[in-house]
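I'll show a typical protein example:
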Amino acid sequence: MPRPTLALLALTLPCAPVIAQQPAGTPPDQRTVTVTARILDTDGKPVTNAAIAVFQRDQPRDTQACRTAPAARSDAEGRIRVQVTHPAKRTPILLLAAPRKASLALLVPPPKSSELDAKERTMQLGDVMLHQGASILGLVRDPDGKPIAGAEVVATDVRGRIFQNDRMGRAHQTACYGISDAQGRVRLSGISAYGVSIKADAPGCFAWSTKYHNRHTPLVVTLERNGEVRGVLLDPDGKPLQGGSVYAYSEAGHTKSEHETDADGRFVVRLPGRGRYRLYYSGKAQSGTRYGSEYSPVFDTPRADVVLRFGQGSLDQRGNRLAKKAAAPKKAAKARNATDKLELRVVDAKSGASLQEARGAVVWWQPQQWQYNSGYLEGRLAAAKPQKLDERGILRLSGPDPQEPGTGRALVSAKGYAPKLVPDITWQEDGKNVLSVSLQRESAIAGTVVDPKGGAPLAGVEVLAVTDLSTLRNYRPEPMRRRIEPAVAHATTDAAGNFRLGGLPSGKVHVFLSHPQRADTAPTTVTLADGEQKEQLKLTFPSGGSLAGKLTGTQIACGWTVRIQRLEEPRRNVFGATYGLSDNQRYESTRVADDGSFTFHGLTRANYLLSLVIPSAHGSVEVQMEPLRVRSGRLERTFDVSEDLPGRLEGRVTIHGAAFPPGRLVVVAQDRNTLNPYTWYSGRPNVTGEFSPLDARGRYSMPLAEGSYFLRVVDLSTGLTLLQETTALAIAATKAHNHDLKLEVVPVRVTLTAEGAGPPPPIDEIEIRADHPKPAQPRGVRINRPDHYTGVAQQIARGTKEVELLLPAVPCKLFARSEAHHLDPKTHSYNFPAQGEAELTPASGSADKVTIQVGKPKISFPDEEQDGEAEEKEKDAKDKMKEALKKKLEVLRVRQGKG
């Protein structure tokens, strides 16, 4: 199957593997590949002299350095080629940069064999699109105005935070990097022209960030010094622990600045700002013993002498160890030690002899967790490394962490043996945890894969064996590529089509065949006895159908792709999202050649929908061409798209009540039939649709496929919708449309006061929920209104008592929030309650004002309670809930009996 096109906004490529540059003199190995791509602009023209560089995750990145000293440059046709090697640890970052273009960062995993050209070990990224960019010069200084050198500044495209369809896969991001010089100056060459989110940090300083910065505004970054926490991480025996991870959770903002402890167990963590914080740490011993994760006490100021030790027990906010509660004694039990091991004596089932080498995996879960996580244990076993066993054949696996239940399952395998599941393991707190595992000799399948027409052997076919079909997530025998995992065994056919699958258990084994140029088929089921070697198995692998198409009626531009989707059964409305006849998550894409031709291989017999994806300056436009039926054999079709090409919508937005810099406001056209929720959770907008920024004259212009659209005006600084039209606008293919908009914005001054005496508690953001009129939806379609219960956030500096918001003239609710919930270990990653709120309907034509009374953050500190007290409260609450459920169940039974 041809590689899909990599266009930043088209969402056509799953995560494409890229690997780090090979050091000079390093001999080629299995991780060395040649990466190729073609760099295009949004008009489909090749980008000449584009630069590419590879940075390690822990290496400072500089876009300007990439442009001046790259690993490779694109030629006159935009093609680029670089040899790179994946490192042993951490995924590198591939950085692409070009003059007047926004730089692109790709964080990607190691390549898979199916994504490489087997002969030349070449990995093709396809077409990479660089969008319009700009350069800004900023200044990094401390509060006294002194310059700070060596500060790392990262600017990411704000659309990645607001627009659901902005990113090209989970690892692709429009990002620009810079490092400040001795005068504190930093040049960001290649930021997005539509606004950026900026983060900055420097050694010894607090971190700094802003969710939105417009390139027309001067960039001044103020970093406060002495913003680091230093300390040492110890294991339960009080010895320094190397390789542990330490994070900081602060009421000044959550930071994921992970630090890995060195050989002496020392760490340095940068805080996001002044305020209370606690440290989260996790790790494991060199033997593989996992210590789980624990939290430090709450600290008020940065410290250089923090000592973190696993197994310390509960601490109060000042770090004092709490004594055991005397009341309500519980049954005495041995405290679970994180260094305890599960010992499995692995022997040959026939002879009883101990094995010398084996590998295994154990997962400590409650029994009910397995029904939702089938295949997880097999995946852990696939990643496990073989262990050398002692003379008794003891395989040592990690015992449960203190936070984990004492029940679990283990899976054990060895070379030449079938894997063995050890179910229903119960951890013995007061005794030795030693079990015996008898392994049967492996069963195996060997055979040949051939073409059903003529019987020619097929080379390069991936053969996978699975014992439990329930472990295949969302398996359907269709041409859209799926992941078959976890496989018990896998192999690739040689030039003669031969393969062998070893290490198989007895019973039913399902054998899958996969190849990019052939249609996926249903598996072949083989029943094996203990130790059976089934030879000369002949598997046929049909080529499936193919589609050879050609576009006519227009001039083909670079970057055009054709997408094929299999038509599915109609689906129900789920949580406000309605799925149509096509499966939007599973499709194949291929690039359109200069003469308009394209080809798809390996299609199963089914109905499909063809779409033409055309890049645009601010995204991409998908034009549906027509449905068709694919059967066996080759289907050749010509498609005249002259009447299907996008129309163009343009107009002017007249704004009353406030002035906005160019590029901050965008007009979004959302398909009338797209019912994806506008926002998902507090403070995080999620806009979908084609969009266009407003220029200095307030004009916008965008291409749109034929259809009906709702228009809205969105503020990129927050993602807040300032205008929502309730009537859909019809767009005809190939036609030009003009539609002007009038926007009324009201400046609202928000004053923060304390509920009691003294200054108000610090606030980090004000959440805005605007109640716009409900758009008219198609008859019979129901849409949820998530914007009624969640909104977007306006970031404010801590200590601010007054802030001006620009709001639409519709009913609004304001919520004052802080990041103090990060201090609560149980709720630091979830939405947190507001510390104050207010309601208003801004009046058109005049400024407005509102006051929010701010209270203390509603958080709890579980470690402030005595040992056992929290558990007693939780048990009482569960008992009350069970009793209430029993009463309700009894009422239902009575009603059913009467009915």
The helical segments are 63-68, 159-162, 376-383, 869-898. DSSP finds four helices and 61 strands in the chain. Residues 210 and 490 are 48 Å apart (CA to CA).
